[in-house]
Design brief:
Shape: globular
CATH superfamily of the largest domain: GntR ligand-binding domain-like
CATH architecture of the largest domain: Up-down Bundle
Number of domains: 2
CATH topology of the largest domain: Four Helix Bundle (Hemerythrin (Met), subunit A)
Strand content: under 5%
Helix content: 55-70%
CATH class of the largest domain: Mainly Alpha
Structural class: mainly alpha
Number of helices: 11
Strand order of the largest sheet: 1-2
Radius of gyration: 18 Å
Distance between the termini: 63 Å
Number of strands: 2
């Protein structure tokens, strides 16, 4: 049987992932300028893959491209946190509820939870946490819903990374993840969805109290 060679990442993909890693570990701070020539020299590539990588990262919301100021790491403020977590609170629990009701497998979520627990740095933990949440919502049976949540994954990771730098709360969040997964594996769709909602709401209230999303404000008024 002929083995299939492992694809070699393109220069653009390599640069993109490395810049993302540096942003999510705090090596590149919010607001910091990203100069194409400097990054190209650091990575040993031409400016073209750097430019393409930055365009992709701008599309995911991690960097901002400005005609006058150039490219910078996106600032995390109350408005950004509110927008990202409003979307997550509205969509993610419902996606998980559908995943559980469909009886979809959750092995990927369990594996991501294991990798998060064994992570040795913030970027690795952040990536595993994002994969955990994605493994819960992606099998919901609605590809469009999954893509909508994918759109805010990197922005949510940036919000979390900035919050973790001030208050490393991942152990608490890991315990909440285990509870969510346990309920989901038991087939308790509504319980898992509530636990996920509470998990997301607890984080934003704790880390960004000035950025309470509209979804939570409406609950408080109900």
């Amino acid at each position: 049987m002929t083995s299939v060679p492992t694809p070699i990442p393109s220069r653009t993909q390599y640069v993109q992932e490395e810049i993302k890693r540096r942003i999510l570990t705090g090596q590149l701070s919010p607001g910091q300028a990203l100069v194409e020539t400097e990054l190209a020299a650091q990575f040993g590539v031409s400016k073209t893959p750097v430019r393409e990588a930055l365009k992709t990262l701008a599309g995911t919301g991690l960097v901002v491209m400005n005609h006058y100021k150039g490219v910078t790491v996106r600032m995390v403020d109350a408005d950004m946190a509110r927008e990202v977590y409003d979307v997550r609170l509205l969509l993610e629990p419902e996606a998980l509820r559908r995943t559980v009701r469909r009886g979809a497998g959750l092995d990927a979520a369990r594996e991501a939870l294991r990798r998060a627990g064994e992570a040795t740095d913030t970027a690795e933990r952040s990536l595993a946490n994002r994969e955990f949440h994605r493994a819960l919502y992606l099998p919901c049976g609605n590809p469009l819903l999954g893509r909508m949540l994918d759109e805010v994954r990197d922005q949510a990771a940036l919000v979390s990374a900035v919050a973790w730098s001030a208050d490393p709360s991942w152990e608490r969040e890991a315990a909440e993840h285990r509870r969510i997964l346990r309920l989901a594996e038991q087939g308790d769709a509504d319980g898992a969805a509530r636990a996920l909602h509470d998990h997301i709401a607890s984080f934003v209230r704790r880390a960004y109290p000035e950025a309470v999303p509209a979804a939570l404000e409406e609950e408080g008024q109900a």
